[in-house]
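Recap for those who missed Tuesday's class. We walked through two folding examples back to back. For each one, the amino acid string is listed first and its predicted structure tokens come directly after. Nothing is annotated here on purpose, so try labeling regions yourself before you check the end of the notes.
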Amino acid sequence: MILYYILKPLVIILNHTPRKVLHGIAKFMAFCLWHISKDRRHVAITNAKILGAKDPVKTARQSFNYTFMAYIDIFYAHRVNEDYIKNHVTIEGREIYEKIKNEGGQFVFIGGHFGTWSMLATIVPQALDTQVITIGRSTKNKALDKILDELRTFERVKYVTHRGAMDKLSSYINEGYIPGVYIDHTATEKDCINANFCGYKVPVIAGIPALCARKNYPIVFFFGLYEGMDTKVILKGPVYPDKSLKPKERIIKIAEDINKVYEEVFTKYPEQWYLIHRRFKRVELEDGTMSYHIYKESK
């Protein structure tokens, strides 16, 4: 844990750094990666093309900025308070949340690595007056995991990692917390199902669709759009599990519904999606076989 005590002073400094300075650091890092990493640049441009961006190169370049801004905004997230919500946050689709809340049952928040994703865990609970249990991925480094846990845990927010998360969810749900997760399209084969997305069948981590299918939990989607220094929270849904389907079919249908909403939002604002990641590195072809060549073929 020596690394923790080495990094902690830097974290404290960044936690008190003005947001404009943080964004300046983020844009410098984005500039460096764009010019240094030909591979990441190619991946982002390919993803932008798949999303149908009018200018894939410009979109990919903008995505680098937004990606690093989201990374570094984690050091600002704990400063989000009532005044910030009042002056810097707007909500599109609040009636969706009110509808699902009035139904009285449990539901799940699902978002994506898009726009201000690193701040949504603090914005949404305060803006909607609720409590959220967020699910993240372990770095497999105890020091980094401890720092991330500190950065992601707030008064209204609990944080758990993917491995073993389902075992912890039930107790938090019973305490009134709403599960919130960003579903990735790069899940390992044993953890995923394949579902249509932007013309391809891509892996979707199966845990949350399976939970929703088993417990009959509806889904409310939440995304945070950068609007300068402000955030526009976009709510979509709700999506309900189809109880007329068999369990496996129900899970696949939920995954398909999730991807439809993702596609709607990401194609509208492609520059704010996390394009530097290989989202389509493993896709299912029409004959059921898997292809690993999307990024190689586009070179």
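Example two. Treat it independently of the first, because the proteins are unrelated.
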Amino acid sequence: MPTAYESVAREIGVSRRAEADEAALSAAVRLGARERRLQRRLERVNGRLAARAFSR
């Protein structure tokens, strides 16, 4: 039977692990959104460059 200290330590460990998992997931979501924004920006720039090259 675990002691009260061991039980609390286990709960804290599980909680910290869950927080770390949540933080990693949140970071992945933010990075995905940033990558999509950068991709759209790159497509706009490439479109403008192609239009300029075509108009000359």
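Answers for example two:
The mean pLDDT is 91.
Residues 16 and 22 are 10 Å apart (CA to CA).
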